[in-house]
Write a structure and sequence with these properties.
Layout (H helix, E strand, L loop, with lengths): L11 H20 L16 E3 L16 E3 L8 E8 L14 E10 L4 E6 L5 E3 L6 E3 L2 H19 L5 E6 L3 H8 L2 E5 L3 E5 L4 E5 L2 E5 L1 H9 L7 H19 L2 H4 L2 H11 E3 L3 H11 L7 E5 L2 E6 L2 E6 L1 H11 L6 H11 L19 E6 L4 H13 L3 E7 L9 E4 L6 H10 L8 E3 L9 E4 L13 H4 L8 E2 L5
Parallel strand pairs: 1-2, 3-8, 5-14, 14-20, 17-18, 17-21, 18-22, 19-20
Antiparallel strand pairs: 3-4, 4-5, 6-7, 8-13, 9-12, 10-11, 15-16, 19-21
Helix pairs in contact: 1-5, 1-7, 1-8, 3-4, 3-7, 9-10
Length: about 475
């Protein structure tokens, strides 16, 4: 039996874990007059928000409570581990003995004005801290709460973590209802029925405004050949798309409802001022400033269980790139030996091939052949080497993006490409590092892509040059 991808998580958790820090922060800024999380040990008293307005009457304040300025500024980078947990039942205690079906490390970079998100598949096989041994990483929360989960990620991947946010998914349906209809790009025809979960997905492809119920159907869609990895990719796009919704003035009127949800469904070790700082930073982030990645590895059956086996070398490259910090590959190799993985020995260095041209693949949907050829001409003229032009499935080409494939293709190389070709400035970056990849970057065109580049010479546009072999959909 071939290995399959890890089982799909509850998709509502993806949205909640990443957005609640911003939503709760905005709630604090506009409405807080009492503790944020009543009943949670160690929760700080709510700050009194003072609005600086010379024409307004003096704001009411309470001397016994700390004061913070409206929209305080985050002046340092921050790593937040965001987790989503399922409920154990209507009468069970929230957040107790629950597995983290969703886990993402979110890096807030105040210097580069960027957010990096690394999705960690819940079936990732790691060594848990203490006496717990080797297990799936999602079991850490069930065994020791958020604190053990944080330590598990820190030790498994040698990354620093400053704070955590844990979200209970029971109230996230109400979150969708509070936010209202959203404009979403549905990548493909989605039909799926899960009677046990009460789920009936029936969505047509294309950019459209989805009702709250349809939004839930979109993020919970399970019928994907890539399994958990496919859903993670789709959810990362969803987070970019939904960011526009959070900028609507009408959302501010709904913050009291979101505040109620936060009281019941969110646990965090951040205090009110820290969340307000995160909110202030997040409100100005554009989709192209969100860089995403999925933990590199492969699916494997071990003793009858399905696991995601992280690749130590590739993980080190991804985390160092996303966190803009140097992560020890040597530590990753030690972890791999502890796990007993039979993957190839990780190399601590790779050959310096900075002299050769950057190798690029262009991927496009049907109908965008000429746009792809024009892009090829522009790239070759700038000194890049376009190795392949591939026509992909429409579902895989609904979003413009720059995909970093090789160890060489770091953020500096990507920024240089955008400087040389400003038409790509707004394109988001996705990190999909593949060890020993022959390609550095893949540029994905969407059906609506219009770069305004000079068309390729007619004689070349009609044929396929020997230097740039074309792959059709059948070869992908």
């Amino acid at each position: 039996m071939s290995a399959r991808y890890p089982e799909s998580p509850n998709s509502l958790q993806i949205l909640g874990a990443t957005l609640f820090g911003v939503m709760v922060g905005l709630t604090i800024i506009h409405f807080t007059k009492r503790p944020i999380f009543p009943g949670i040990p160690g929760a700080p008293p709510a700050p009194v928000i003072i609005v600086e307005d010379s024409t307004a009457k003096p704001a009411m304040s309470f001397p016994s409570m700390p004061k913070i300025n409206l929209l305080p500024t985050l002046d340092h980078n921050m790593n937040i581990l965001c987790m989503g947990v399922d409920s154990n039942g209507r009468h069970a205690q929230r957040f107790l003995n629950t597995r983290s079906d969703t886990m993402m490390l979110v890096h807030i970079d105040t210097d580069l004005k960027r957010v990096g998100i690394v999705s960690i598949p819940r079936d990732s096989r790691v060594k848990l801290p203490g006496p717990h041994g080797i297990d799936k990483i999602n079991s850490a929360h069930a065994l020791g709460g958020a604190e053990l989960a944080v330590e598990a990620v820190k030790e498994a991947f040698a990354v620093p973590i400053d704070h955590y946010v844990v979200v209970d998914t029971e109230g996230l349906k109400k979150l969708f209802e509070a936010l209202g209809p959203m404009e979403i790009m549905v990548e493909k025809r989605m039909r799926y029925r899960d009677r046990a979960a009460g789920l009936h997905v029936d969505l047509e492809p294309g950019l459209q405004t989805l009702s709250p119920k349809q939004v839930e159907e979109y993020v919970r869609f399970r019928h994907d050949p890539k399994g958990d990895i496919g859903r993670i990719e789709r959810q990362q796009w969803f987070m970019r798309q939904v960011s526009k919704k959070l900028k609507e003035p009408a959302v501010l009127l709904k913050l009291p409802d979101l505040f109620k949800f936060a009281n019941e469904y969110v646990v965090t070790d951040m205090n009110a001022e820290e969340m307000a700082k995160v909110a202030n930073f997040g409100k100005d982030i554009q989709p192209q400033q969100v860089q995403t990645a999925t933990l590199p590895g492969h699916a494997e059956y071990i003793h009858g269980g399905s696991y995601w086996i992280p690749d130590p070398e590739a993980c080190s490259v991804v985390f160092s790139r996303m966190l803009n910090e140097k992560i020890s590959v040597a530590e990753q190799e030690e972890k791999k030996q502890e796990y007993g993985s039979d993957a190839a020995t990780a190399a601590t260095t790779y050959s310096d091939d900075s002299e050769r041209p950057v190798r690029i693949t262009i991927k496009y949907p049907r109908g965008q052949e000429q746009e792809a050829r024009s892009l090829e001409t522009a790239l070759n003229g700038l000194g890049y080497k376009v190795r392949y032009i591939m026509r992909g499935d429409t579902a895989d080409c609904q979003h413009e993006q720059i995909v970093q494939m090789s160890y060489r293709a770091d953020n500096a190389l990507t920024e240089t490409l955008k400087e040389k070709l400003p038409q790509l400035t707004s394109w988001p970056v996705n990190v999909m590092v593949e060890p020993h990849s022959s390609m550095d970057l893949t540029l994905v065109l969407a059906p609506c892509t219009k770069l305004g580049l000079a068309p390729k010479a007619e004689t070349e546009a009609e044929g396929v040059s020997s230097a740039t072999p074309q792959k059709t959909k059948a070869h992908i």
